[in-house]
Specification:
Its main location: membrane. With 237 residues, this protein is an alpha+beta fold. It contains 5 helices and 13 strands. The protein has 2 domains: 125 residues; 103 residues, Transferase(Phosphotransferase) domain 1 (Transferase(Phosphotransferase), domain 1), CATH 1.10.510.10. The longest helix is centred in the last third of the chain and has 17 residues.
Length: 237
Amino acid sequence: MAGVVQGQNPGSQYLVCEDYLPHFSPCWFSASFWGASIEPVTSGGRGSAWLISDDGRSWVLRHYLRGGAMSRLNADRFLFVGTSRVRSFNELRLLEDLTREGLPVPEPIAASCIQVGLSYRASILIKRIPGVTTMGDRFFDLTASELRKIGSVVRSFHNHGVYHSDLNCFNILIGDDDIYLIDFDKCRRYQSSPQNATWKTKNLERLKRSIDKICTPDSSEDIPARWQSLLEGYRAD
């Protein structure tokens, strides 16, 4: 289980997974600390994530940003109402739970919460999954079998009551042997739900909208058949 580490500066707290506690440093959350060993993620997202390759470490550092109109006034601060509501801490704890349950997610490392007055900034560190590409980057090259496998993986998360608040084709990673879901910010879990539960349907609709956004006039005709293959995997017993 992750343990809380107090930072040297007032209001700085870190939630660190057990395997990383002995060597933890708050510097891990500073992009400048890594020097040439860090590079920005270029696919999906809002430019708030970096890849770290340093001394055997292969990690991802992600900084939490606001979306929508509010981001123009306040890019990365959130109202602090207690550590139980800190987004990075909640995501790390959820990843710990999902890892224990055998679901394909990245391994969590540590999360930060830096209070600034009545608000806080947050970041999370996770292990990088090697040899993967996003579903969005290669959607039109995927076979029907691969699409069915993606549908099956989404179904497995739903069977565990996991509602992914940003289920889109860039948060699904495809490896040689497995399909992974990433970015569990603001996700939540439901108790036992029927297969046709409204939240599951809406989650699939969100994924479909993200696929529609990457289609071009030349590729739009392929969408219905490819989506049907994914649904076949999702609905398979």
